Amino acid sequence: MIKPLSAIFSPREKTRHRWSVASRTIAGTLGAYAVTALGTVAVSLVLAALGVTRSEAVTAATLASYAVFAVVAMAVFHAASPMRAWALLIGAAVPLSLIVWFLGPAR
Amino acid sequence: MRGGRVMKQSLRQSMAWLHTWAGLVPGWVLYVIFVFGSAAFFQHEIDAWMRPELPSETRVSPRAFASADAVLRARAAGAESWSVSLPDARGGSALDVSWQMPGQGRREATRITLDPATGAEIPVRETRGGFFLYRFHFDLHFISVMWARYLVCVAAMAMLVAILSGVVTHKKIFTDFFMLRFRKGQRSWLDAHNVTAVLALPFHLMITYTGLATLLFTLMPWAISANFPDRQAFYATTYPQGPEREASGEATPVAPIGQMIAKAQGQWGGAMPTYLSIENPGDKAAMATLYTAKSEWGNGRSDTVYLDATNAALLPSTPATPGRATATHRVMVDLHTAWFAGYGLRWLYFLSGLGGVAMAATGLCLWCVKRRLKLPDPSRPHFGFRLVERLNIGFITGAPIGIAIYFLANRLLPVAMARHADWEINALFIAWGGTLVWAFLRQPRRAWLETLTAAATLYAAIPLINAATTPRGLAPSLMAGDWTFASFDLVMLALAAGFAFTGWTLARHKPRQIPARKRRSGGEATA
Known about the structure:
The complex is a heterodimer. In chain A, 80% of the residues lie in helices and 0% in strands. Chain A contains three helices and no strands. In chain A, helix 1 (11-49) runs antiparallel to helix 2 (54-78), helix 1 packs parallel to helix 3 and helix 2 (54-78) runs antiparallel to helix 3 (82-103). The longest helix of chain A is centred in the N-terminal third of the chain and has 39 residues, at 11-49. Among the domains of chain B are: 9-52 and 128-238, no CATH class; 53-124, no CATH class; 375-511, no CATH class. Helices cover 57% and strands 7% of the residues of chain B. The longest helix of chain B is centred in the C-terminal third of the chain and has 30 residues, at 343-372. The model of chain B is unreliable at 1-7 and 516-527 (pLDDT under 50). At the A-B interface, helix 1, helix 2 and helix 3 of A face helix 1, helix 6, helix 9, helix 11 and helix 12 of B.
């Protein structure tokens, strides 16, 4: 749980708390962004593979991406611990990376 | 992860933490976006007020088009491009004629303003008007447009997270909505925050998401990178491209502007263009591009007409057939810009925007109010608290003070002054920067009172200075039924009253007595 720093008294607890908040904050911002970006690319490639025009696939995936980011960020901040939050992000990133790998950037 | 670290927390608790920080960190940027963005809904009306020399008639007579032709032929021979911008029906502009000589940048183009009725050149004070307020809400100033847009987009994403987590946090907002308890300290701030947030909640969510849609690929360009070699390739397939014509080197005169406009009107069922540009005027391959005002949801540049500028003959162009996603994107952008809104809906957009301003401001204040009583030594708050408190004053009152000075500078700076438009903008930021510095120098309560008084005085002064420096003061405007000018002055008075009321409430407020404590000798109070 993210409790206010003022509710913690021992210096060791304080340091641990600070690291925990920092780790979770990075997960919820940069981590959530990276997973969202990966997801956006994956969705656009899947849509294109299903026969949607490429420019349409790109626009559709990107339009939805901001809602996806918000949900991912909220999930990270609700996770029981920063470790679980990172596990959640990696768990989502692995299948998404595979999709991107197989459908590969079309150049 | 054993022991006390993993604790089951309710969704409300985790979202409350997220709401606090996702709201605070970008809070000042969001406040500024809301302030300037709300003003932008009336950018043409602000343009009109800031260019009092312009006639209120916006219909262009054939005489004025002939006069534009004559000016361009006489003064703009050999230019790379000519352009004619028609007055907006909402006011704030006239028939603007401009041209760009070879080697000149867009900002160096010569521009003159013609009376839409007579075609005579009218001297208009140089100003960027409401357009500057509109651009500032996503391009900022003093920093590069690219970085400004990144910053604005990051703030908007945080805003989205703050709105969604806020709905969870203030779970009872809908039942508490009818509770606005005054003079109850923190509870009143929370009530005010809830009321302003919930009243326009669909608007806040819509304007944030569609705002991100207007800058869609700024932060999320990755789907383009994965599917196209570069951005140009993506735009080329998504948006219809106009015909390309190279200069031939053979001289041929340009057809009359009136003739080209008549041709375009035939394509648009009588609608007037808003803007016309001619590339390589005087060349055999000169091409005119005519744009019209939006009249349909979700249409992009599909209505653009391309003409051979020597004989006004239509040039073939591929009509736009946007797919569903592209159409959705355009509708989102339309919802954000509100081009379709008549005056009733436009006021609703503006008032909802002010609701967003109040939501951001009360949220920022609430952060301090909640923490003040828990401070170990309220007379010596820690650095973070002091910083937030001072930034709140410097932004919440500083930005409106800057805008008031911007309007006053428009009337008070000598009309013939060189770089009049730049100095209006400089005045805005000098006043705002000054307020920020003041907020850091004074005791916070005093600073709030002083800056609120300054804001009230400045906004009240605007109609007075307007009446003193132009013949279009509030009384003559009301008498003449000039609603653009009258409404502008009345809104300024309403803002003055708002700031005065806030200051008066604060002045009457007796802060709860804080028990006197022994001063800590230099011991810093953390947390």
